[in-house]
Amino acid sequence: MRNSFSPASASTGASARSTGRPRALAGKAMLSLVAVFTGASPYVADWNDTHVLNPLWPAHAKFHNGQTMAMGTLLALATLYFVWRRRGDAGSNLRAAAVFAGLYWVSQAMAILYPGAAYFDPQFDTPDMYLAGLPVQAGIEIVALALIAGAALLLRPAPAAEAPASSD
Is the whole-model pTM more than 0.85? Predict the structure, then answer.
């Protein structure tokens, strides 16, 4: 059976033409958007003088930045795989896609908790790096995690219909 993350097809085996298709496509699009952003944004944000090309950064810090950027790409690919996977259980695929989509953003949100961590190096800590009083990274994390949560709500399988009572 084809897996389309559609609430109707998850519980009844209905085709992708079911009434849940618009919701399913919207949810898949939201997760796909987060995945593409997760895979590309670390390179856009970090392949410059603030990170990878920063002469003040030691080689080992650049190594870990490379690790983080590559992890974003791998998590993006895993997210896309499970979003568009046609095999397996729709609910399991949704959970896997949502977890892979969220790992990068949750780990970024937690990074500020480590000793000595800062959102910006002092020379780059300028007012334009804040949105509504929040560091730009925090704003992006909120948006990404909200999109993932919204997609999960749109894509969640409908509860199985109860079997009719037997007339034995």
Answer: no
